[in-house]
Each structure stands twice: as structure tokens, then as C-alpha cells.
């Protein structure tokens, strides 16, 4: 294995090990959360309350040596509450910039669908260009700026669906399910002592494995993960098939092709390989495509789900040998 890819593999393995000290079970979720970080993209996290969505992002920030910021989205939240604004300083007789929570490395946009579209769109420029405009001035954000936006899948009263343009800017959708019985039992036992997940994070039991500067350097090493031409064509065919399936009203766009390619590369690196396999692509197809596909109403009425459609698409597209 290329020594640079080996360095990336070791960094990913160390990060996974440290995060697992706090997040019980959810190993698949941890892997998927690392993918947007190491590819320079963003993720949408969906799960019922209490499955450690916030704790996951806080722990990742601690392990990777990055700053953490959080915004609780509410119906009365304004765009300036996210980006910041200029406030007049009487002592200096000038306007000073009060930076908003967007000026951080990892930003948790909690219950993003509780704010109206105008406020949600304040994140669009930041997510796409890693910069924000405040009073006609452009300010650069951290090169490690990553948005983790959460949604509650069971509560829709007082919510505003994310516009398709904004959903497309999320590389993948991460679904956090409730833990298995053994995992929940382990959590209950830890709560009886002094090593609860929150206490482990607060006490410094979680080791920082990287710095923000190192993280930026490791991203470039994903380019060393090999993707064969036939696998590249396989990725393109999967995305194009999503536009032609009979049950799909709106299929995935070209940004989904890029996301599936990068996610497959990162998945290969997490699995300690310097080459992508068809299984990597299949594993990442659902997280990348699920939030991008819109089904036809008649199929939704019949109970057809997006994940079911994605599986049918994968069955239809020929797998390279």
C-alpha cells in the first residue's frame, strides 16, 4: 500500500477507535460521519431524539482537533443569527463584526427543518463556497468547515421541508437508529458509574488524534485511492439509472455522481484499502441517493420507499467484474 494512503488509513482507524469510546455501537454511523469530513463535504443526520446525534458531532470535533459550533434552528431564527452582523461600537465609534456560529470547523445545524427557507438558505453559500457575505463583505470560513444538519423523522408539525437545492449540497444522509438491546444495556450500566458517554467526553478520556491542519493535508491523500475506469462508469450508470426508473419523478443530478465517487473512495480508505471495489459503491449508493430522489405520488401511495427503489436500481445496473 502507498505509504501516504497508509497514513490516511491509520488516521481514520485511530479516529474511529476514539469516537467509539463515547458513541456506543453505531460503528456504521461513525464511518459514514467520517466520510464527509475527509472529503470536504456535508452530511444530513436523521434520527429520533436521544440517539446521540449532537454527541457524535461534538466527539468528532474533539478527536479531530476542530472547533465545534451549534445552532438550534427555530421558526424565528434569522439569517444574521447564523452568519453574524455588524454592531456599532460606541467606544471606537465604528462598526465591528460580531461573527455568527457559522465561523467554526464543525457546525451542528440542529433540527434544520424547523427554520423557514430564507434562514435555511443562509447556509447555502457557506456550504458551497466556504465563505459568507455580511453587509456586502465576503468572509472566508475554515477550510475544515463541515455542516452536520439533523432532522427528526417522526415530527413534522411546525417544520419546513428542505429545498431540493439545499438537500443536494449534503453529500450523504446518515440514519441513526436506536441502539440494539446489548448496546442499550451497556449504556445503562455506564450511566450508573462515572463513565457515561458525556462524562467520558468531558473528562478528557477521549484522545485527540489529529489537528485541524493535519486533517486538511490528509484530505488530499484520498486522490491516491484508485478507481478503475469500469467502476467510474458503474457510478455514472447508477446515477443515470435513478433518472430513468419508472417510480422516480426527479432523479439524482451530476453532484450525486461526484458524491458517490468521493464517498466510495473514503469508504475504501476506512476499510484499509487503496482501491475501490463494487461493494464500496453499493454500500454508499443509498446514503448518497436517498435524500436526492423524489418518487412519483402514485408509487408513494402504494407504499414504495426510496431505499427499495435504490436497491432495484442497483440490481438493474450491471456490476463490473
Order of helices and strands: HHEHEHEEEHHEEEHEHHHHEHHEHH
Count of domains: 2
Provide mean pLDDT, rounded: 89
Number of helices: 15
CATH architecture of the largest domain: 3-Layer(aba) Sandwich
In CATH, the topology of the largest domain is named Rossmann fold
Class by SSE composition: alpha/beta
Shape call: globular
Fourth-tier CATH superfamily name of the largest domain: P-loop containing nucleotide triphosphate hydrolases
Distance between the termini: 22 Å
Strand content: 15-25%
The major pleated sheet works out as: 5 strands, parallel
Number-wise, the strands total: 11
CATH class label of the largest domain: Alpha Beta
In short:
With 321 residues, the chain is an alpha/beta fold.
Report on the structure:
The strands form 4 sheets. A 5-stranded parallel sheet has the order 2-5-8-1-9. Strands 3-4 form a two-stranded antiparallel sheet. The model has no long low-confidence stretch (mean pLDDT 89). The protein has 15 helices and 11 strands. It is globular. It folds into 2 domains: 3-219, P-loop containing nucleotide triphosphate hydrolases (Rossmann fold), CATH 3.40.50.300; 225-321, Magnesium chelatase subunit I, C-Terminal domain (Helicase, Ruva Protein, domain 3). By secondary structure, it is an alpha/beta fold. β6 (131-134) and β7 (137-140) form a beta hairpin. The chain is 46% helix and 15% strand.
Amino acid at each position: 500500500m502507498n505509504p501516504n494512503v497508509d497514513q490516511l488509513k491509520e488516521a481514520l482507524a485511530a479516529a474511529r477507535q476514539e469516537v467509539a469510546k463515547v458513541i456506543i455501537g453505531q460503528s456504521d454511523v461513525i464511518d459514514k460521519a467520517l466520510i464527509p469530513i475527509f472529503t470536504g463535504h456535508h452530511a444530513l443526520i436523521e434520527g429520533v431524539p436521544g440517539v446521540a446525534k449532537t454527541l457524535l458531532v461534538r466527539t468528532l470535533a474533539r478527536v479531530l482537533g476542530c472547533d465545534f459550533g451549534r445552532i438550534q434552528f427555530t421558526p424565528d431564527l434569522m439569517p444574521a443569527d447564523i452568519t453574524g452582523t455588524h454592531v456599532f461600537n460606541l467606544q471606537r465609534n465604528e462598526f465591528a463584526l460580531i461573527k455568527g456560529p457559522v465561523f467554526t470547523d464543525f457546525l451542528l445545524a440542529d433540527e434544520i427543518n424547523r427554520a423557514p427557507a430564507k434562514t435555511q438558505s443562509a447556509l447555502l453559500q457557506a456550504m458551497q463556497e466556504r465563505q459568507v457575505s455580511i453587509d456586502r463583505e465576503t468572509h472566508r470560513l475554515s477550510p475544515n468547515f463541515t455542516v452536520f444538519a439533523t432532522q427528526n423523522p417522526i415530527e413534522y408539525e411546525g417544520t419546513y421541508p428542505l429545498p431540493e437545492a439545499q438537500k443536494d449540497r449534503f453529500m450523504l444522509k446518515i440514519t441513526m437508529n436506536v441502539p440494539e438491546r446489548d448496546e442499550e444495556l451497556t449504556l445503562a450500566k455506564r450511566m450508573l458509574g462515572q463513565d457515561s458517554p458525556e462524562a467520558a467526553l468531558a473528562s478528557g478520556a477521549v484522545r485527540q488524534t489529529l489537528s485541524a491542519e493535519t486533517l486538511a493535508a490528509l484530505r488530499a491523500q484520498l486522490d491516491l485511492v484508485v478507481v478503475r475506469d469500469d467502476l467510474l462508469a458503474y457510478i455514472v450508470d447508477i446515477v443515470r439509472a435513478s433518472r430513468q426508473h419508472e417510480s422516480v419523478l426527479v432523479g439524482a443530478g451530476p453532484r450525486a455522481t461526484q458524491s458517490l465517487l468521493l464517498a466510495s473512495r473514503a469508504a475504501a480508505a476506512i476499510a484499509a484499502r487503496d482501491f475501490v471495489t463494487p461493494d464500496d459503491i453499493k454500500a454508499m449508493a443509498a446514503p448518497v441517493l436517498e435524500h436526492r430522489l423524489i418518487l412519483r405520488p402514485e408509487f408513494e401511495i402504494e407504499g414504495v420507499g426510496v431505499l427499495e427503489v435504490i436497491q432495484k436500481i442497483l440490481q438493474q445496473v450491471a456490476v463490473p467484474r
